[in-house]
Each structure stands twice: as structure tokens, then as C-alpha cells.
Write a structure and sequence with these properties.
Elements: H1 6-11, H2 16-26, H3 29-65, H4 67-74, H5 90-99, H6 105-116, H7 120-181, H8 185-199, E1 204-208, E2 212-217, H9 223-228, H10 259-273, E3 279-281, E4 290-295, H11 303-307
Antiparallel strand pairs: 1-2, 2-4, 3-4
């Protein structure tokens, strides 16, 4: 297994602006457009995950509790505070239709034009414009599924929330886990760093150790932004897991959104593969920095990450 050089540890943490400037300086216009769309696909991947998670949550409600239970959660937007609910502008809607619901042709043509004139300022401004629209669509999707799992938590408690998240994990996260673990560890850390820095809109750093890489997100672009936007306070009132349950890492400060880290990234991977995928250090409602730990050999994962969900590390 290869170490990454000090320069590469910095290099893999760069955000979309840095990556686009590199592309503009070294690639022909059509390939710059391809890189723009590739980075945008990292954002879309997270947004699509939220949309699928929402559908799967409704499926769990339908299967476990009937059509009316699913229908009430499908209409969750009517519970949102009207003065605070995010809305796409007409211009942003056109971007989202092209970038999230089509092939991105309109975006690519605009990027090619900027690349032909080597307009760095214009290219980065256009990224910010497109990313702002896509990020808002992502926020709406994340809020939707968080509101739905809040209803699950309120109606069926922590046990119901765990069952719901296990159901979602089988359909959504297990296939992603298998694809990720098929890669070499150094490939995985590069992929996770890019995903966190671009897809999750986070500022990251990577520390290399003999047995692992530690990716620090400060801020985490998903749960921390959600917490700091007041989603767990009135008038939104998204849910927090009851203390003392493994779906909340046995803590009193884990949100229903963060609960997927306990199930999809910790408990189920331990049951299926013998180790968390990857190991997670969640900051909870504090909304501070969090850690994602990729062990070169997952079997060497520290026992503390098992203890978070009351699991025992396999021996032998």
C-alpha cells in the first residue's frame, strides 16, 4: 500500500475552483467542459442519494405501516415554514433542469465558450452560479428526507428509525460500500477527499498515519450546514434521536439525519464486512468538525468505532 506524498495530501483536498483552474490551464475547451460536468456530477450524486433515500423511506412506511402512513410523509412539505422554505428562482430552475434532470448540454456549451476565451474569472463565476442552483436543489432534497425520517422517529421511535435506516442501507448504501471497498486504499482516500470537498461542499484536510488516513471536514457541508441553518430549532423542528440508542451512537445529540452514519456507515458494515465503512467521528448537534477515517486495512479499525454502536470488534 502506497503512502501519499505531502504535496499530494494537499492536492487531493483542493476544491472545485482549483480543479477548474487546472483544467483551464491544461485541457482543450471540450475537456474543460467535461471536467466541469464531472465535478457537477459529484454534487448530483449526493442530491440523487437524498432523492432515493426519500423514496426508500416512503417504501418502508408503505411496507411496514400501510399506504396512509406513506402518504402522510409524502406530503411533508406542507409542514415546512412558508417564510423560511428554500425556493429555486426561475433561472436556478433552468440550471437544475439541465444539470440534474438532463445531460448538462446547456451548461457544457456555456463552459466551452468560456474555456475558448480562457476566461478564468468567468468560468469560476459560472461554476458558483450553477453550483448555487444545484446546491439549493440538494438542500431541498436533504430537507425532504430529513423531514420524513423525523416523522418516522416521532411515530415509531428509535427502534423504528433503525429499522427504516436498515431498509434504506440495503438498497442504497450497501451497493456504494461494495463499489468503494473494491478499490485500493490510496484510491479510496482520493475518491473520498474529492467527494467531500466537492459533492458535500466541505473544507477538508487529510492526515496520513501508518495505518490510516483521517479526513477532517471543517465544516461538514451536509449536517453542519443543516444544523447551522436552524433546521433543528423552531419553526423547522427536525428530529433528534432519543438518548441511549445505538441509532444515535448512544448519545443525546445525534440528529435523525446523522443517524444514517450509525447504521449505514457503522453498524451494518460491521455486520456485513466486519468493520465500519468508513469509520466516522460525528460532531452531533455541536455542528463542529467531523472525521472520516479510512484504514489501509479495515480489519485494523480501532475498537472505539465499534463501541459507538455497542458492537464488538471481531477477533482472529
Amino acid at each position: 500500500m502506497s503512502d501519499l506524498s505531502a504535496d499530494e495530501l494537499v492536492h487531493i483536498c483542493r476544491g472545485p475552483h482549483e480543479r477548474l483552474v487546472e483544467a483551464l490551464d491544461s485541457l482543450p475547451p471540450r475537456e474543460v467542459a467535461s471536467e466541469f460536468l464531472r465535478l457537477l456530477a459529484l454534487v448530483r450524486d449526493i442530491a440523487d442519494l437524498y432523492a432515493r433515500w426519500s423514496v426508500v423511506t416512503l417504501g418502508w412506511l408503505h411496507e411496514r405501516h400501510g399506504l396512509d402512513a406513506a402518504a402522510s410523509a409524502a406530503a411533508v412539505h406542507e409542514l415546512w415554514p412558508p417564510s423560511a422554505s428554500p425556493r429555486l428562482t426561475d433561472e436556478q430552475l433552468e440550471v437544475v433542469r439541465d444539470a440534474f434532470r438532463s445531460d448538462g448540454r446547456v451548461v457544457a456549451e456555456r463552459v466551452e465558450g468560456l474555456a475558448r476565451s480562457h476566461d478564468t474569472t468567468g468560468l469560476l463565476a459560472y461554476w458558483d452560479e450553477v453550483n448555487a442552483a444545484c446546491d439549493l436543489a440538494e438542500i431541498i432534497r436533504r430537507d425532504t428526507v430529513t423531514a420524513q425520517v423525523t416523522l418516522v422517529n416521532e411515530r415509531y421511535g428509535a427502534d423504528g428509525l433503525e429499522d427504516c435506516l436498515r431498509y434504506a442501507t440495503d438498497l442504497l448504501w450497501v451497493p456504494r460500500m461494495e463499489r468503494d471497498l473494491a478499490n485500493a486504499p490510496e484510491v479510496r482516500v482520493r475518491n473520498w477527499a474529492e467527494k467531500m470537498a466537492t459533492g458535500h461542499h466541505g473544507a477538508i484536510s487529510v492526515a496520513q498515519h501508518d495505518d490510516r488516513w483521517v479526513i477532517t471536514l471543517d465544516p461538514c457541508g451536509s449536517c453542519r450546514r443543516q444544523i447551522r441553518s436552524g433546521r433543528y430549532e423552531p419553526p423547522w423542528n427536525f428530529g433528534v434521536v432519543a438518548p441511549g440508542h445505538r441509532v444515535g451512537f448512544y448519545r443525546p445529540d445525534i440528529t435523525v439525519y446523522q443517524a444514517h452514519l450509525a447504521i449505514a456507515h457503522t453498524l451494518v458494515p460491521i455486520e456485513r464486512r466486519g468493520a465500519p465503512w468508513p469509520a466516522m467521528g460525528c460532531s452531533g448537534l455541536d455542528g463542529g468538525s467531523c472525521e472520516l477515517v479510512i484504514y489501509r486495512d479495515p480489519a485494523q479499525t480501532d475498537e472505539a468505532y465499534y463501541a459507538q454502536v455497542g458492537a464488538q470488534k471481531p477477533t482472529g
